[in-house]
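Q: Structure for this?
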Amino acid sequence: MIEPDLNRIWVYLSASPLLGLTMTLVAYSLAHRLYIRSDSNPLLNPVVTSVTALILFLLATDTSYDDYFDGAQFVHFLLGPATVALAIPLYQQFNKLKQVWLPVTVALVTGVVVGAFSSVAVARLLGASLETQLSLAPKSVTAPVGMAISEQIGGLPSLTAALVVVTGIIGAVIGSKLFDLIGIRDDSVKGIAMGMTSHGIGTARAFQVSAQMGAFSGLAMALSAFLYSVFLPWLLSITGVLG
Amino acid sequence: MQLINGITLLLIYQLAGEVSVRLLGLPVPGPVMGMVMLFITLMIRGQMAKAVEPACTALLGHLSLLFVPAGVGLIVHFNRLGNEWLPISVTLLLSTIITMAVTALVMQWVTRLTARREPNHD
């Protein structure tokens, strides 16, 4: 008597966006709690734990990503307004930015060129397909912008979205150690490099280190999203990576 | 109400960004254009910052959450990841380390260069 009922409930839930949305929020809030409990251990980054848990859940219940995304799209959609919201840190830090505009501009333009070409070059050298190379090129750009660029240059937007997330996590995890290793002490320099490389996930991590690092990281993320979308398709075409 | 007003403004700017990018055939994604337009508005009318700030803080404060649905999308690409896991993982790791280090070192280098020159100007 109970089993057919459970089955009917499951059929209802798996066809409704409610489950995907709720699961996303529950997984994230649990992952966030675990992260705080672990004293912000970078390996327990809440994006890693919640994504892993959700993938295992989908595999265990044989739920398709499309069904999950019917609900999760409401969270995903907010990436657009969040990108627009980057105007606020940009505006608030504008006075500081005016003093360092030259080093920031040179660093970000170099970062865009190095970021795009190092990923295409390494992937090509190791024999990745062209589609994978192009999906990797905008890996340091915040997801909504990275996906749009990927589509424009002939990559797979959904693959780019996932690679963007992994890139953000790698940067957030290795950032502090790398800066120590190469002798970077200034929080504004750390923030620019973090936001340039690891977009939103790196910025979330940077805000935990200091408000200044977070603000500069948000700034670098906003400016590099702009630079990448203007220059990447052009850079790839003049250097012959595209056709 | 402030939060609702703020989110409404952000959506209006995103919409304006999407529309203008399509109308003018610009090579920039709509949300980025919306960000540029909002930034310009704030430079002209600074008091508007108060209206959007709570919504911006809420969104940017939980930015990590917004990446979760895309991250779960890895599941769709298990086949490709199985075949190309080595180039993909080495690329992600190497390119992230190189880009982060080069960006930081270049900024530090140019900062020192310009700081050293400044006393001569004054």
